[in-house]
Structures are given as structure tokens and as C-alpha cells.
């Protein structure tokens, strides 16, 4: 049996609005982000979601809490975190993401590489069928989370993903198993 996985990004943060790359810093939802999180809850109400897996970073946890307010089981998992930009966590997006391909395999100073970040996501996916086979789960995460899903479940090239701008949409659907 398979596990149906729906992926959603965390809502907009204060850092997003000011052009910072938060990385492994907690982050905080902006006013617009709080509205987006509430809309996520409305959009996914009645969608057959059995549980929510979320990054343990504050901005993802806050998105999940505002969206689902105790209506679904929520499991926090560090493997769903954004790429760790190390010494560059919180720096300007223009600096951190200027040439992501440089950090495909080379970790950011004091952090990790994009390949390491996406490998974490693959570890979570390997665990899902043990408990959630035949179920539908929602994953709330970051850009690195989506890249990990695309690489592991759709065979996409990480190089290609890093070479294109991330485009938001209201959810992505995947199957594990």
C-alpha cells in the first residue's frame, strides 16, 4: 500500500517579507502569513488528511497550529527543516541563494549542502509506510523539503531544481511506496 503525501510550504514570514533567508533560525509568521495559514486550514478541511508532519522550525509549527488548531494529529520532525545555511542563516536571500549550485554538495560555512538537506527528507519518507500505509498525510515544510520530495519521489534532478526559481502553489501531491 502507498501513503498519499500532500506538501504545503509554511506561510509567509517576516524574514520572507524583508528578503532574508531564514535557514535554521526559527522565523515568525507575518500578518499575511497568519492569514495564509488560516486559509490553508480552510482549504484542507475535508481533504481526508489523517495527520500532519511538520518541520520543527517555529514558522512551520506556527503555520500548522494556526491551520489545524488541534483538529489533526501533528508530528514535528527535524528532517523536514530548511537547508542549514550555517553562518549565513538569516542573511539576505540575494547573498545566500545567489548561486545555490555551489552548495549542491559543498556545505554552506558552518551548515550543510542542499544534497544533505534533501537526504534528510528521504529518511522521513522511508519511515512513513510503517505507520501510515493506506493513509493521507500532510507535510508542512520549506523549499528544501519540497526539493527532497521531488528528488526522492519524482526522480527530479537536484541540479535542475536548484537552477530554477521556487514557484509557490497551493499544495503538491505525491505517493510513497
Q: Indicate the CATH architecture.
A: 3-Layer(aba) Sandwich
Strand content: 5-15%
Q: What's the CATH topology label?
A: Rossmann fold
CATH class: Alpha Beta
How much helix is in the residues? 40-55%
N-to-C span: 7 Å
Protein name: phosphoglycerate mutase (2,3-diphosphoglycerate-dependent)
Pfam families: His_Phos_1 (PF00300)
Family: Belongs to the phosphoglycerate mutase family. BPG-dependent PGAM subfamily.
InterPro entries: His_Pase_superF_clade-1, His_PPase_superfam, Phosphogly_mut1
Structure in words:
The chain is an alpha/beta fold. It has one domain (3-176): 3-Layer(aba) Sandwich (Rossmann fold), CATH 3.40.50. The protein is built from seven helices and five strands, in the order βααβαβααβααβ. The protein has helices spanning 14-18, 31-44, 58-68, 93-96, 114-132, 143-154, 158-163, and strands at 3-9, 51-54, 74-76, 136-141, 172-176. The chain has a five-stranded mixed sheet with strand order 3-2-4-1-5, sandwiched between helices. Helix 3 (58-68) links the parallel strand 2 (51-54) and strand 3 (74-76). Helix 2 (31-44) crosses helix 3 and helix 5 packs across helix 6. The mean pLDDT is 96.
Topology overview:
Layout: E1 3-9, H1 14-18, H2 31-44, E2 51-54, H3 58-68, E3 74-76, H4 93-96, H5 114-132, E4 136-141, H6 143-154, H7 158-163, E5 172-176
Parallel strand pairs: 1-4, 2-3, 2-4
Antiparallel strand pairs: 1-5
Helix pairs in contact: 2-3, 5-6
Keywords:
177 residues; alpha/beta; Rossmann fold; 40% helix; globular
What is the gist of this entry?
This protein is an alpha/beta fold and 177 residues long. The chain contains seven helices and five strands.
